[in-house]
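go over this:
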Amino acid sequence: MASSLLALIDDIATILNDVALMTKVAAKKTAGVLGDDLALNAQQVTGVHPDRELPVVWAVGVGSLMNKVILVPLALAISFFAPWAITPLLMVGGAFLCFEGVEKLAHKFLHSQSEDDLHHKELSEALANPTIDMLALERDKIKGAIRTDFILSAEIIVISLGTVATASFSKQVAVLAGIAVIMTVGVYGLVAGIVKLDDLGLYLSRKSAQWKQKLGNTLLAGAPYLMKTLSVVGTIAMFMVGGAILVHGIPPVHHAIDHLAAGAASIPTIGGVMRWLIATVLDVLLGMLIGTLVLVTLNAGGRLFKTRNKVA
């Protein structure tokens, strides 16, 4: 009896260890979406009254969790009834990540700083207008953020599903449920901290202690740069993750890149780093190429659709 109990405990521990390992791998592969998710959701509360920032983040976080309650069973159903669809879905998710990255770069280079400043000024003036219904604006922001989160959550779940596609159904359930909770709590916990960083800086800057004032002023000065850094890191990570997904989905390309990267492994001391660097750079370049093709195709399709509508 005792030996049977110990064997059961050992089996449970093995399963939990496998689930933890697969969850860790899934979390690493969704890092690109996580970086974009952080930057995007932190920006979503721009224009909200400071007293309402945390309630808005909480509302969006709850909406994000509900998104995953829908997406996780859907992903598990696909894995159970149509496992062949996992790779195509991963490819679509990877292409979408790269498209988002290219779209961000295109916006940066195709729109001048004066245009962005004008948009920011118009938004600030609109928010200062006493006739604006702030509660309605807040509800619209929450709905928009939840809709955006649905797309990002779908990417996270699909990428996570790809890492456990060959695992047992019970392990798939555990990993996807774990990722859903970890990502939601982690993302919106960090978003809450980011959006209140300037408030913390203002609070500390008003303290009598000199070191607190210096720390507060540093936080106030650094908050905007943190947002920019998150955006840049998120964009790079999108190309890295999306490109890697696409590369692994095209075996000839994957083998070619792996062969090129393996050639650098023999370099003394830095061989391992060079192998990783070459593979990563090639993944990013392929991701940028695919993202550009998707952007051009969608823009051309949009113009064609408008032209047909005008003719009709």
Remarks:
- The chain has one domain: 2-311.
- The chain is about 85% helix and 0% strand.
- The radius of gyration is 23 Å.
